[in-house]
Write a structure and sequence with these properties.
Elements: E1 16-25, H1 38-52, E2 61-64, H2 70-78, H3 84-88, E3 94-97, E4 103-107, E5 113-120, H4 124-141, E6 146-147, E7 151-152, E8 164-171, H5 173-177, H6 181-189, E9 193-197, E10 209-214, H7 222-247, H8 251-266, H9 272-287, H10 295-304, H11 307-312, H12 320-334
Antiparallel strand pairs: 1-5, 1-8, 2-3, 3-4, 4-5, 6-7, 8-10, 9-10
Helix pairs in contact: 8-9
């Protein structure tokens, strides 16, 4: 089995956790998914699957969502391979996924095709090239709905045009700690971008992880949208590094990091929220060379310790206490 994409690190990894490119496409000859009945959705799935099977260099595993357990579906959402909305209603929906989970295709979410490419670190150009190459091969087999004036047609009017959403996930503990994050969220919204919690919403994001994404898709090229996102992401990363330098002038910062590491190393019960708060501090310490841990290992823990994903590791339902006990045990073993 291939190693998962998140087991590596990439450029700017002290701040930038990962990069993703989403492309929304619809078949020209079919109504949007909201207008399709179940047999029609299954037919669309089969058409797209057959096209995906011909994409050179990629092997996709295919799964009808209704065949998966609730824990399996929620785990997919926790790993950001499907959207929460996609996971909430499974009839007529399917997923195409590579072994390393770097490429996923949601079938019959808001649109017939929602192609996603994910890379570790700051890799917008690389992710875009991969997504574009796969989309080009699919378009050679499928006729996508396109208007000369509006661009690619999507069920959600706000995605008209490029149909592209580019994102980077940023680790911003210093900007959160110094209360700069709320102002930053407001500022980037004026620049055609959104900044929201990767786990959780607003300034209360779990693990201090924030997703920076483009919001404008109409009247702008894909390349221009990516360059705008790239520029703002680099500015935010610079602000975060500056805020970290200020944080570490206070002795309490190093103390908080070691206390977080100590709790994770010795606790017997840890819930998800506490784990994410503590691992955020440990990651900050690892980046600064205080804690001897690899960032890729920390990123993997952030994914594997989510509630549904941790339950899947033992292949049986767990109540909250059992899950918190298992999480603490697995974290201790990894530290």
């Amino acid at each position: 089995m291939s190693a998962k994409w998140y087991l590596g690190t990439g450029a700017q990894n002290d701040v930038v956790i990962n990069t993703s490119i989403h492309l929304a496409r619809n078949l020209k000859t079919c109504p949007f998914p909201a207008r399709l009945n179940l047999p029609e959705k299954l037919k669309v799935n089969a058409i797209i699957k057959n096209a995906a099977d011909t994409v050179e260099g990629y092997t996709f595993n295919y799964a009808e969502m209704k065949t998966l357990s609730q824990a399996e579906v929620v785990s997919l959402a926790e790993r950001h391979l499907v959207s929460p909305e996609f996971a909430s209603s499974r009839d007529g929906r399917a997923l195409l996924l590579t072994d390393d989970e770097s490429v996923s295709v949601m079938l019959n979410e808001e649109d017939h095709i929602r192609l996603q490419v994910m890379y570790a670190g700051f890799a917008l150009d690389e992710a875009y090239r991969t997504a574009s190459a796969i989309e080009k091969e699919l378009s050679s087999k499928l006729d996508f709905a396109f208007d000369d004036r509006l661009g690619y047609l999507t069920q959600d009017p706000t995605a008209l045009g490029t149909g592209m959403k580019a994102s980077v996930v940023l680790h911003l503990p210093a900007l959160v700690s110094t209360s700069q994050i709320t102002k930053l969220i407001t500022t980037v919204s004026k620049l055609g971008l959104s900044l929201r919690g990767s786990y959780g919403e607003g300034a209360a994001a779990k693990g201090d992880l924030f997703r920076l994404s483009n919001t404008i898709t109409l009247g702008i090229s894909e390349r221009a949208a990516i360059e705008n996102l790239k520029s703002i992401a680099l500015q935010i990363a610079a602000q975060e590094r500056s805020a970290r330098d200020e944080m570490f002038k206070a002795a309490v910062t190093e103390d908080r990091i070691y206390r977080a590491y100590g709790v994770l190393k010795y606790a017997r019960l840890i819930d998800t929220n506490e784990f994410m708060d503590l691992i955020s501090l440990v990651r900050l310490g690892a980046v600064k060379g205080i804690i001897n841990m690899d960032c890729a290992q920390i990123e993997a823990l952030m994914i594997h310790m989510q509630p549904a994903t941790i339950s899947l590791s033992v292949d049986r339902p767990l109540d909250r206490i059992e899950r918190d006990k298992l999480r603490a045990k697995l974290v201790r073993e990894n530290l």
